[in-house]
Write a structure and sequence with these properties.
With 395 residues, the chain is α+β, with helices and mostly antiparallel strands. The protein is built from eleven helices and 13 strands. GO terms for molecular function: histidine phosphotransfer kinase activity; phosphorelay sensor kinase activity.
C-alpha cells in the first residue's frame, strides 16, 4: 500500500534520533545542508531538514525530481558520493550541480519494510569536502541503514536482533574508522604548529578544536548506543588516592576553553575513592559545560567536592533562572534540549551520559533549582561500591 506524503513525513518524525543524525552528519562531513527526502518516480519531497545554508527548503517542500540526483539514486538503486563536482569527470557538466550550486554532495538510498525504495539521506555544500574516504562513506551508509531500520521497526518490532547487530557494528566502526583517522589529523595539526608561520596559528587552533569536537561527539554517541543496548556505561574500577588532581585538571581545561567564565572550586586534598576516574572526570566536565552554557555569564560556576561519613559528593552550581519542575524531570533524557538552546551546542547527551556514569558507579545524580542557583549533585559511597560488582567492569 502506497502511503501518503503526510504519512511518510510522520513516519520520519517518529524517529526521535533523526535530528541528531542530521546534526552528526553535518559535523562529520562539514556539509551545511542535510535532509531526508521521499522520492518517487515523479516527486521529490523533504521529510526532515538541517539547513545551515539558508537554502530555504522546509519539511514537506517539493523539488522537480528530474532536477535532482536522487532520481538517479532511485533508478540505479545505488548511492552517489561526490567530493568535488569540478574534479568529477561524471558530474562536472551535470545540470543538477549547476541548478543548486553545490560542489560536494551525497545521496544514499533509504528503504521501507520489505525493501521498497523510500527515498534518500542526502546532503550538499558549495565547498569541496572529503566524502568518499571509507571512514566517512561507511558512516553515512550506516546512518542510512539505521534510518531504514527504524522505518521498518515501526511495522516490524520483531527485527530487534538485527537492529542490535547494526548498533554493535555502529559502535565498532565509530571506534576504529573514525577515531583512527581523526587522531592522525589532530596529530598532524600538532606537527604543523611546530613548523607553520605564526599567521596560521588561529587556523590550526580552529582545526584542532574542530577535531576535538568531533571526537567528543563520537564518544557521546558511542556511550549512548551502549547504554541503549542495556550494557550501561562500562567501568574500569581502581583505587584513586589523588582524585582531586584529575578533577582540577578537568576544571583547568574548561577554564582555558572559556576564559571569560569564572569557575570556583572547593575540594579537599588526598581524595581517595574506588572509581573509574576518567569517567568521573567526564561526569564533572559534562556538568561544568552544562553550567557554563545555561548559567548566568556574570556569575561564577561553583564546584564543591566533599567526602565523609562513608559518602562522596560532587556538586556543580550556577546562577540563573530557576528550572521549572516539569523541565527538571526531562533533563537526564537523551537528546533533550531546552527550547532556547542553540543547535551547535552538542547532541543533547551530556546530562544523560553523566547520569549513566553515576548509575554505573552505584550512585545518583540529582538536580535542585531555585532563583538563587541550580545545582547538580552526584553522590556515591566513598568506599566499597559493592552494588557495582563485577558487572561494572569491562569484559
Amino acid at each position: 500500500m502506497q502511503l501518503t506524503l503526510d504519512e511518510d513525513i510522520a513516519a520520519i518524525e517518529k524517529i526521535s534520533a533523526v535530528p541528531t543524525i542530521l546534526q552528526a552528519v553535518s559535523e562529520l562531513t562539514g556539509l551545511r545542508f542535510v535532509c531526508i527526502a521521499r522520492v518517487t518516480a515523479d516527486t521529490w519531497h523533504s521529510c526532515a531538514v538541517l539547513d545551515k545554508l539558508n537554502f530555504g527548503l522546509k519539511v514537506g517542500d517539493a523539488l522537480d525530481v528530474s532536477s535532482t540526483l536522487c532520481e538517479e539514486v532511485r533508478d540505479n538503486n545505488a548511492a552517489i558520493i561526490i567530493d568535488s563536482v569540478r574534479d568529477s569527470t561524471q558530474y562536472c557538466d551535470h545540470h543538477t550541480p549547476r541548478i543548486y550550486g553545490f560542489q560536494s554532495y551525497f545521496s544514499i538510498p533509504l528503504y521501507r519494510p520489505g525493501g521498497e525504495y523510500f527515498g534518500t539521506l542526502c546532503g550538499l555544500d558549495p565547498d569541496k569536502a572529503e566524502l568518499t574516504r571509507s571512514a566517512t562513506s561507511n558512516t553515512l551508509t550506516l546512518f542510512a541503514e539505521l534510518i531504514s531500520r527504524q522505518l521498518a521497526g515501526q511495522e516490524a518490532l520483531r527485527d530487534q536482533a538485527e537492529t542490535a547487530r547494526l548498533r554493535e557494528q555502529f559502535i565498532a566502526m565509530l571506534g576504529h574508522d573514525i577515531r583512527t583517522p581523526l587522531s592522525t589529523m589532530t596529530n598532524g595539526v600538532e606537527i604543523l604548529r611546530l613548523k607553520a608561520p605564526a599567521s596560521l596559528t588561529p587556523l590550526l587552533d580552529l582545526m584542532y578544536r574542530s577535531g576535538q569536537r568531533i571526537a567528543a561527539l563520537v564518544d557521546d554517541v558511542t556511550d549512548f548506543t551502549r547504554g541503549r543496548m542495556g550494557g550501561g556505561i562500562a567501568l574500569a574500577l581502581r583505587r584513586e588516592d589523588k582524585l582531586e588532581l584529575l578533577l582540577k585538571q578537568a576544571i583547568d581545561e574548561l577554564r582555558s576553553v572559556h576564559p571569560g567564565r569564572q569557575i570556583i572550586e572547593e575540594m579537599p586534598d588526598d581524595l581517595e575513592l574506588l572509581c573509574d576516574a576518567p569517567r568521573l572526570v567526564q561526569l564533572l566536565s559534562n556538568l561544568l559545560k552544562n553550567a557554563i552554557v545555561h548559567g548566568s555569564a556574570s556569575a561564577p560556576v561553583r564546584v564543591r567536592v566533599t567526602q565523609g561519613g562513608g559518602m562522596f559528593e560532587l556538586a556543580v552550581s550556577n546562577s540563573g533562572p530557576a528550572i521549572p519542575a516539569e523541565i527538571q524531570s526531562q533533563l537526564f533524557q537523551p537528546f533533550w534540549r531546552s527550547a532556547t538552546e542553540q543547535g551547535g551546542q552538542g547532541l543533547g547527551l551530556g546530562l544523560f551520559i553523566a547520569s549513566e556514569i553515576a548509575v554505573s558507579h552505584g550512585g545518583t545524580l540529582e538536580v535542585a533549582s531555585s532563583d538563587a542557583a541550580t545545582t547538580f549533585t552526584y553522590r556515591s559511597r566513598s568506599a566499597g561500591l559493592a552494588s557495582c560488582g563485577a558487572d561494572a567492569l569491562p569484559l
